[in-house]
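TL;DR need structure tokens for one chain.
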Amino acid sequence: MISTQNKFDYRQPKVTVIGGGTGLPILLSGLKEAKCDVSAVVTVADDGGSSGSLRTSLNTIPPGDIRNCLVALSDAKQIYKDIFQYRFAPEDNEFSGHAIGNLIIAALAEMRGDVHHALKLLQVMMAIHGQVLPACPYPLVLQAHYADGSMIEGETRIVAEKRPIDCVSVRVANPDKRPDAQPTAGNNVVKAIMEADIVVLGPGSLYTSILPNVVIEEIRQALLDTPAKVVYICNIMTQLGETEHFTDADHLRVINEHLQAKAVDYALINKTTVPYEYIESKETPEYLVQVVHDKQGLLKEKTKIIGADFLNLKESGVYHDQRKLVAEILKIYRGDY
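>> reply
TL;DR here they are.
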């Protein structure tokens, strides 16, 4: 008789991570190191910096977050990663601020006809361990709705507004060119969610990195239908203009409200106190205070809470420790909770 004691040992855990911003690549590199089969679903609503410029000029999806995720999952030599990440200096006129990788992604999308085929080629060129999937095959515009009934469009404007958001939605960019188009999931995105063992939301900015993906209807429905365990990584700090005064329960509540169901199975929440000097640091002015724990509020969300020390303190700010996150994700995968 064949033993079933180690029934999960025969293959790599399939982990699909959904988000954007700086937090996503950190987790991806940790999952890669742990030999997981990784799919990264990346937001396409960024409209700032190099990504925003290329998105406007070439009518393509913003490549910045995709570039960072490719590098995080790459087994290429470090020199190739460094070239891909190199950003032109401010004095370089029209190239100022552009990362070489952004230009390569945009050029390959034009050469191959779409971003899907461009990324298939890049996966070979960059020796990618896993796959990077745009949440939508074309650029989206993020819409923030406020309690007074007003609405602002564009991630950059929303962040600059710095006032509490009621909910978010997305629409297609350039509606004159796609008058009948609705935001749809990108190639293989729904498949990656449905075939995963674990689906992770975050880490990242709640309203500008995570929710722009969740509100795409096909992705929202896949998150409700997937047999995978859905895990949310709660922010450690509140963010100016997005989650001021938010508790950990508020973060989870907003996720579930946008999912239109209490669909998050597990939430990873930091339980260690952030040192005072990091909260007051001039390097992180967008941080306000540490997210407050709300036990009673969490109980209402019907989610299994996993509290641990997830802190990784750096001069540039407060981050999640990738190895500690990965360790807890693998425990969930093995059924230890």
